[in-house]
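PROTEIN–LIGAND DATA SHEET

This sheet pairs a single protein chain with one bound small molecule, pyridoxal-5'-phosphate, given as SMILES. Inputs appear in the order they were entered. The predicted three-dimensional arrangement of chain and ligand is reported afterwards as a token string under its own label.
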Amino acid sequence: MARPDIGPLERSAVLEVLETSVLSIGPRVVAFEEAVAAEAGTAHGVAVNSGTAGLHVALLAAGIGPGDEVVTTPFSFIASANSILYTGARPVFVDIDEQTYNIDPSAVASAVTSDTRALLPVHAFGQPADMDPLMELATDREFVVVEDACEAIGARYKGRPAGSLGHAGVFAFYPNKQLTTGEGGMVVTDRPEWASVMRSLRNQGREVGDLWLQHTRLGYNYRLDEMSAALGQVQMTRLDELLSTRAQVADRYTGLLADVDGVSPPAIDAATTRMSWFVYVVRLDEGVDRNAVMQALEDEGIPSRPYFSCIHLQPIYRELGYGPGDFPHAEAAGEACVALPFYGRMPADETELVVDALASAVRAQVAAGA
Ligand SMILES: *Cc1c(COP(=O)(O)O)cnc(C)c1O
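PREDICTION REPORTED AS:
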């Protein structure tokens, strides 16, 4: 489905770390933080060992806890909502925009209550959420915004970098992401107090400069190691290349799909001035049996995945009182969307093979239904 793009520079950077005796809390983490913060145009970057950990410490730094409500989208990877549950706050889901699959600002407006302390929008598949109306609402109704930019490093909204649009933004570097450190994540923010609380939280609650075993608050071990940071530092120098090779593959898919009935390519909003392609997700027309299409692809040796599976329909979220029918746009997308194999250096003949197989699978479906 995906593969990382690791070159000789990454290999030698990681090996160089192994020649030293500093494998954690060292200079590579600092350099990687500076590189990511510079890309996002923020004052601070705080490296952690996963995107999930980044979302958790960002919400904690924002003071989110029991009794608070955090508005978010049900159409995401489960970590975005889980991070809210970790803090003891309540995730409040709202529906998405049908075109972009991102949180719908008008739905957010109607979900805000006196307990709303934060909004956690997700830039789904690498396309920024419609942040201007969301930030306006945040100012009016006095809540903070933590962007889940885990799928969107390098993306631009009206020319501004994803991650810098809210009060904090979180990136993730798992191997299927555009840029990888193996495991890893990063929070970017302009707020110095939040940055310093997050540095403490990732390191067992020690204040920066604390004595070895002084713990000011309940912290975690969310530290990123030096090998991962060295890998990330090199990948950051290649960010434009990593994103443009992915964009070329996405464009090729979109071009080929223009001739295929029953399948819609991703819709890119005018506000998305740079898409950061994380996955390539198509939508099947209503009435096309997605499972049958995925099975037909599988029979040709082509993997595909349903993307996403709505969070509010997962067993643990149903316990909070959510269920089918709550968010029609998210649920419809959850039933009709399929991620195709996608990575930066995917050869042209592979994309052609995938689209040919998809076209005949959908044709067979339409014929069977007719
Ligand atoms: C990948 C991802 C995360 C979590 O990142 P990890 O590094 O796997 O913890 C969170 N939110 C979204 C939307 C993601 O795609």
